[in-house]
């Protein structure tokens, strides 16, 4: 019997556990939280991520819960559209993180909740998989040193608002942006990303008074932004400082591998973090193959690393570039050219 220990019961950990279990592996999943979360923002499942969810067995549940979105658009603060509509080459499904995790958990082996991991000593499994996020403990073992996340110099405020939409819309202005996307449960998802240096003097704190903060930050912006701000559920708002990782020289050491945010945590500006995590899970399961197939596990993990390390890092770099482009107060013409280039490959 081939055995795997997965540290982290989030998107990557659950997807990998489900895929390996389908291949006959005996899998243990350890998660430090006491239970699955019941709050979280909307996530976009791009077509390639939906293909992984098909392999996992969660795609039907995701489609039943989520909202099908095929159009995205970027607009100026005044509402003028920048560049063409971005039409997906296949259905992109948006749903909240809790509902996605529930769909994945229904396909995975039982998770051992309330199990924090401080190191990987004592694990005797054939492979150990670090799916433990941006603050990964397993990453320290793989690299032989601590690698701290990098602050991106921007803050994010996210939440939900009653309503419905089938279009992803993002408004760009100097030092700040505002987004509105579909999500499940008769809600829309909204988010604000901003350079703290762009906050007007006297603006309320975003963590304690999110509505008045947003009113001050987006005063005079397009009417849809103003309507969304007035309708937000303030209790659902979450404020955090955006971070990513530097490019890691490796994501595998011996029989230990990193996936998802442990390997390539990225800025949220492309909406690709969860998708890249699912692609990691599929590549890792494919490289390891069916239980008892006689593959050398270290060789299989090196094949996974060859496929996914640079791929995840490219998306991480593009997300960072997109963040800078969206928030710049200068060079508007190059900014719009970058947007058109992104639309061409979306």
UniProtKB/TrEMBL annotation:
Q: Which domain of life is it from?
A: Bacteria
Fetch the Pfam families from UniProt: FAD_binding_3
| Gene Ontology terms, MF aspect | FAD binding; monooxygenase activity
Give the signal peptide as a residue range, or say none if absent. none
Which ranges carry the FAD-binding domain? 3-78, 128-316
- Keywords for this protein: Monooxygenase, Oxidoreductase
- What is the name of this protein? 2-polyprenyl-6-methoxyphenol hydroxylase
Q: Which organism is it from?
A: Tsukamurella pulmonis
